[in-house]
Amino acid sequence: MTKIGTVTFHGAQNFGSVLQAYALQEFIKGLYDKFGKECDYRVINYRTEYQKSFYSIYKSVKNPKNIIKNAVAYRHSTALKIKNQKFEDFLTNYINLTDEASKANELEKFGSDFDYYISGSDQIWNVRALDFEDAYYLNFVENGKKISYAVSMGPLDIDWNKYGKEKYKALIDDYDCISVREIGTADKVEELTGKAPQINVDPTFLLTKAQWKNIESDANYNEGKYILLYCLEPSVEQLSMAKSISKKLGLPILVTRYNNKNDMINGFVKKYDSGPLDFLSYIDNAALVLSSSFHGTAFSMIYNKPFYVFNGMKDSRISSILKIAGIEDRSIERMEDIDRVSLEKIDFSAVNKIIDDEREISKNYLKNALEI
Fold this sequence. Notes:
Order of helices and strands: EHEHHHEEEHHEHEHEHEEHEHEHEH
Strand order of the largest sheet: 10-9-8-11-12-13
Structural class: alpha/beta
Strand content: 5-15%
Helix content: 25-40%
Low-confidence stretches: none
Shape: globular
Number of strands: 13
Largest sheet: 6 strands, parallel
Distance between the termini: 11 Å
Mean pLDDT: 93
Number of helices: 13
């Protein structure tokens, strides 16, 4: 039996992070089943204390800014506790985990446990990320082949001299197969190593709409007559645009998370108790999705939902998938763009064909990388 160990941001209490971890797991297990082979697939359960505190309800008051954040969190503490438990339940029930490791040196015990080690998707190669660790470049592996699948270095430029150019070049050079998620990351890898990696779609695209619907909850609101707003750090202008779109279409705005200081007072429908499976359902049932998030965009496409993405063409990760699908017009940037916002259904036939083709490309990459 082939043993596979993956490192990724599975412990981040972020819908996209945990769902992409699940998707890669299920797709690879399905590949082995398809070829009549067996695999023991595990996500290496690396969750640092910093990462846990980063997603905790209350933040350290050593930073004065956190006092306001904690006050806001207190108002929604019951819902946020439910949400946190739903994320933990998802990891327990849907992700095949190893024992937990909370410190980098504890990863050494996994260094020879697997035949293949995978750097899974999401921004795990983004050295600028607050919860980044060198472990996501598989620096703890002693024996076994190293591969990556659709990793991202994030949307911003990286000054490699500041972070250690030679170190990360050496770490990447040690991989047997390299796959990245978007053109921007491919350019960064080529800048470091002189080699052009393969570009593959995010793991969330590897599962079909039917597979996602199979695990979603029954969460809904107003019989689907709502706009789902999913932004990680919305600007004042983006929130104003969302409110104007809500008024234009006569639909309430539903949010699943508290965003930032720009979003402290509003009339949105707050579903802060939402877990990953609820998020899928709210996407599925929404009349319209507004997002500035990569995974908000991805799931809107998978579910074939009417959607618009704020500043999508200015984000290399999002613009990459919009260009591939030929739907750049789904990006809105300023108030004037609201004139073309509607609930009109998108013809997803071409998009679905492209996603199917990309899924086949990813299947072949993983089949070859894992020597199935």
